[in-house]
Specification:
Order of helices and strands: HEEEEEEEEHHH
Strand content: 15-25%
Number of strands: 8
Structural class: alpha+beta
CATH class of the largest domain: Mainly Beta
Low-confidence stretches: 12-29, 177-275
Radius of gyration: 50 Å
Keywords: Signal
Pfam families: BIM1-like_dom
Protein name: Chitin binding domain-containing protein
Number of helices: 4
Shape: rod-shaped
InterPro entries: BIM1-like_dom (IPR046530), MYXO-CTERM (IPR024038)
Distance between the termini: 168 Å
CATH topology of the largest domain: Coagulation Factor XIII, Chain A, domain 1
């Protein structure tokens, strides 16, 4: 190889290396954040809300999650800047996303899920943040990651204090969650209200009410009207079916026969259908005792 050819090759190689160096530097400068889970729709991140301006389109990478699920969002800060990160969610496209109005403007709109995620010192820092997704179903939802840098001119036209990346996602399963809640409600209603209070307790009360009073009525009527004679208050029988009150000697008992005697001829005793003659004999016996006392 002659000296002239050697010089020409060096002249050609220098512009190529210079161009490659500029391209690598530009790529590194533009990639301040790199979303890794879920995957971003593209690598662009300069213009909001998702990297290339308001006319940004949904990409080919779509992640599917359950409505209400808590996921781990992971990303890398490739270029170190002081500041913080925020994560937002839009259930239909990306028109609900809004830039923060200042460095301390946290949770500035309803789309924000997590805000003020602290920056780590140094480049190539890995981040992961637990995020609970809304309890809903949607097939055109978007998750947005924003890097807020506090060492840049703040919030002016043409400045680059914000970087954006978005992930296209789908939420499934909100209907299944609603069904579980309904099932739980039916279980509670069936066991506590219908089963125990209405069916179980009512049956128990019915048995107790109709059974015990019935038995009690039978027991009360048997000593009074049953048998072959008349029963007095203490239920003691005498002779051929005539019942006499065993407490006649004391003035506090035998109230039925004593009331009859005090009424002089009035009958205050209880008589049975077949014990009429026995009642008359008992009456004469009591009158005789009364005369003896007198």
């Amino acid at each position: 190889m002659c000296a002239k050819e050697h010089i020409d090759m060096h002249r050609f190689a220098f512009p190529v290396l210079a161009f490659a160096s500029v391209a690598v530097t530009a790529t590194a400068a533009s990639a301040h954040i790199a979303l890794s889970s879920p995957l971003p729709r593209h690598v662009e991140q300069k213009s909001g809300p998702c990297g290339v301006g308001p006319n940004d389109m949904r990409g080919a990478e779509v992640a599917t999650f359950q409505g209400g699920e808590t996921i781990m969002v992971r990303w890398t800060e490739t270029v170190d800047h002081p500041g913080h990160f925020r994560i937002s969610f839009d259930d239909d496209g990306h028109d609900d996303f809004a830039d923060p109005a200042g460095y301390d403007d946290f949770y500035s709109n309803s789309a924000v899920l997590v805000d003020e995620i602290a920056d780590k010192q140094g480049s190539q820092q890995m981040y992961e943040q637990a995020v609970t997704l809304p309890l809903m179903s949607c097939d055109n939802c978007t998750l947005q990651l924003v890097q807020v840098m506090t060492d840049k001119p703040p919030y002016e036209v043409g400045t680059n204090d914000l970087y954006y990346q978005c992930a296209d996602i789908v939420l499934m399963g909100a209907a299944e969650t609603t069904g579980e809640e309904t099932t739980t409600g039916e279980t509670t209603t069936g066991e506590e209200t219908t089963g125990d209070a209405s069916s179980g307790d009512s049956a128990s009360v019915g048995t107790t009410t109709s059974g015990e009073p019935g038995s009690s009525t039978g027991e009360d009527s048997q000593p009074t009207t049953g048998g072959d004679g008349t029963t007095a208050d203490d239920g003691t029988t005498a002779g051929d079916g005539t019942t006499a009150a065993s407490g006649n000697d004391s003035e506090g008992t035998g109230s039925a026969t004593e009331n009859m005697a005090e009424g002089e001829g009035g009958c205050g005793c209880r008589s049975g259908g077949a014990g009429g003659s026995g009642s008359a004999a008992g009456l004469l016996l009591l009158l005789a005792r009364r005369r003896r006392r007198g």
